[in-house]
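Example 3.2
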Amino acid sequence: MTAPLDYQQTMRLNTFGFVELRRRLDPELVGEIGAAMAALFGDAEAAEMEEGLWQAAPELAGRLFATPAFADVAGSILGHDFAYVRSSCLRLSVDRSWRGGSGVLRWPVPHITLLLFPRAVDKASGCMRVVPFSHQNFLRLLDSRWDQAPDYLYGLRNPDLRWQHNAFGVADQDIPSLPLESEPGDLLVITEDALHASFGRSRRDYLAATFMANPRDEHFYFLRELQASGGGLRPPAAMAESAHESVRRMARGVLGTPAPVAPERAG
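Structure, written as tokens:
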């Protein structure tokens, strides 16, 4: 377990659209998160609950988000003044097909998603899969020359274009991709602009938490549009009331309507 990412890890994310951080988190903490998510979902075969961990176990969520092994990942990539966007608890028991970088709402600010699987997942059980180099919008933020590059994966990004046929004439499962197998304690980092999917029939739970670089004034209208579309930026009250100053800081308001902030206390 370490804290900030090194240069090579950051470059792997920038280049390929993902990075795997093995044995990053305390397995005991991960076990508690897994138990909380299992209780949250009960017998449901599939579910997605926005801010689910903050609603079900706010003290536990605060410990996770405050631990350097988790929070310093976002800081290493986005800068230490990064902002919270949203988090969700998900349970899958069927395939979840390709998504990422739809091109409908293009982010003008770098953003990443941290994925935590409390139980081991592999290719057979439905681990996350990614298409390397598919994070074109993220690359555009790093190098403006990507503005001129055609997006040959557009048909795969947009399910609405595939209602009559599969992209490239093959089943979604046969799209060339890399499986991101995970053990308890591993942390997976992706850009949401990277195409990602999960194919499997086993029940698997995971937490997805998204953060972005500190936005500037020119991002105001994008942030309003993101919020209006249900893309996040409504931190739960439990974050503003957290005992951890670092958690309260990442949940600060970014739209001119700050989240309620609890009185300062020792972190």
